[in-house]
Please model this.
Amino acid sequence: MILDRFRLTGKVAVVTGSGRGIGAATAVALAEAGADVVLSARTREQLDEVAARIADAGRKAHVVPADLTDPAAAGMLADAAVETFGRLDVVVNNVGGTLPRPLSDTSTEFLDEAFRFNVGTAHALTRAAVPALLRAGGGAIVNVSSVMGRVSGRGFLAYGTAKGALVQYTRLAAADLAPKIRVNAVAVGSVATSALQVVVDNPELRERMEAATPLRRIGDPEDIAAAILYLTSPAGSYVTGKVLEVDGGQQAPNLELGLPDLT
Model:
């Protein structure tokens, strides 16, 4: 049956930023598809809650609290997977994010931090994971990018530049790691996570954002998790170096920050 191609039975995954939001939904989805999962984020309590959901799905979770703004901490997660579960098959580079800031307030250091957090951590874990993925016979890596990596809007210079770089990193890594390891990305639109809580809780802002989104709604974390499951499972076995846009049809920012013209 075609649904069997979405199974990850006996596989092991690492999901960064998996304490809540897209990362948590993805970790649970991979577990429901049959994988054991290494979870990592800053807050142990959140990770423990996700681990309990994975246990309810009949799979095992290994919790690694870590500050993943440090690429070295991200790189250690591949070893944690092998030491705990004996193998590694799937990597989801979900951790990232950068606060909006006007260009005039974006220092070189701020831009460097955005690049390190959104691209450097993904590279550190990807590079560390390659030997284990090869020993397992191959595997799949998914990088979580953003619609802001391809559209323009005021205030998103650091974040959009970093996420755009992550998309090109995905294409280049896919070329380097083929044919054994597939590398793809998901470009995410507006999703109801804690980062968007101020919009979700404000009916006026939410209505404006939904009206500016072709599908007229904000995404759910599970929308992204389903796309990641496709890309990491045998269902996506003929896909590498691609970017799957899961953004409600956005072709522009759906909520402007209202930054004024320079004078």
User: Anything to note?
Assistant: Helices lie at 21-32, 44-56, 71-85, 108-135, 157-177, 197-200, 203-211, 221-232.
